[in-house]
Amino acid sequence: MAAVRGAAGREEGFMRGWGPLTAVCLSTFMLLVDVTICVVALPDMARALHASLSDLQWVLDGYALALAALLLGVGAAADILGRRRVHVAGVVVFAAASLACGLAPGPGALVAARAVQGAGGAAMLATTLPLLGSVYEGRDRSVALGVWGAVSGAAAAVGPVLGGVLTQGPGWRWIFLVNLPVSVAAVWMSLRVVPESRAPRGRGIDWAGTATFALFAAALTYGVVRAGAVGWTSAHTLSAFALAVVALGCFAVVQRRAAHPLLDPALFRRPAFLGAMVGALAFNGAAFGVLPYTSIWLQTVLGMSPVRGGLVMVPLSVASFVVAAVGGRLLHGVPARLTIGGGLLLVGVGGFCQAVLDAGDSWAALVPGLVLVGFGTGLVAPAIAGAALAAVPQERAGMAGGAVNTFRQLGYALGVAVYGTVLTARMREALPDAAARALAGGGARALRGELPERVLRAAFASGLDTAAQAAGATAVVAGALVLVLLRSRRPGRTVRAQAAQDGQAAQDAPGAQDPAAAGF
Prior knowledge:
It is a single chain. By secondary structure, the chain is mainly alpha-helical. The chain folds into 3 domains: 1-193, Growth Hormone, Chain: A (Up-down Bundle); 207-259; 271-495, Growth Hormone, Chain: A (Up-down Bundle), CATH 1.20.1250. The chain has 20 helices and no strands. 61% of the residues are buried. Residues 1-11 and 489-520 have low confidence and may be disordered.
């Protein structure tokens, strides 16, 4: 009996100690893996579903846009309805959408399911850190946030390889279906070991702000994607941009009048906060927005398998993980403007170093640039949320941290759209319009009977070079702006000095920080 009681005690101790952290990390790992895991599977999706380039862009952007548009609003709802309840509901929605993705009969159904998946992901991401903050205190909270950050970084590193293994093995649909058993485990553990929590002071849900921001993000991204197909001055493109401007204006008006705004426009008058948002918006797009097209080039032009294509991405993730882990100790006390601004400059240099391809190059030509991007990512990702928190008063910490996650996801969605448009525009200089779009969308195999192999390789390499240059320029400009704008309100105040504020924000607000070391 004593042995039975001892085993039961150990299980109860685990459930009280590591149980909530394990449950939250399980759902976080699944959420973040699903971003990078899709990149390697795009060529197989295109062939199986007869998807176009814009379809592939929306497979990625539908997910990222839903995350960006709903993150702040869902977090506010969780404060009222209960964070565990919203988190579990998000996992259920994510799982149902994953099943729909895995069974999708065509590209339209897949894009719609990915958007729903992103909505579930927003409920998960907005509540992970507040749940941890409500369970752990003091040193335990610091340990929990560190483990959560390490798991987030590992997810970005594992995603491309796992996506390659599943795509090359049972098929691309399994990159979504594998989420089902993980979701069941995450729901079971969350209901069993994660206590319910709510914000100490209730606030209303800003439905108007959520709707107008979602409309702005969707219209802007749609305009960029359409520009790649019909041109920047077409009626469809200009109408989408006009709608985006109107929606953004409405969002600003709503936020000024709301009793509990999602994002107070007055914060953008603070140069340090503006610099953090510029860095967050540019970071994910510049660092990762070209990778989907790199994956298509590796598999459809160079003929690499999905597994090998995924392994090519690993140097970026490994470099990011190592720099974040080592830099946290070596760069203690270094101002955030230097780590974030310098990191963005490294991302920019890495982008330019990838713009060296020609018709005869292989994947090895990308490695130096990918490693530099990884170095920059390892500097920017752990510091960007803390810099935003340091730029605002304590009572706005949750709003600032949530804004960082929102801007990062929006930056990724825009990066995929913009750099895809740049890619195809460059390829049109060497190929007919239809051929350029087909090649960018993974249709190299069908085009080989119509055009010489060297022409196809040269056109794609030229397009990738131009897209990488655009990403590099984005990161360099953003890095320079961050160096100018991002200054602490008090001299010598570093991101590390925000530890107490970060922990409180994790408890009190949605998506308060993002200590993930690697990318998405």
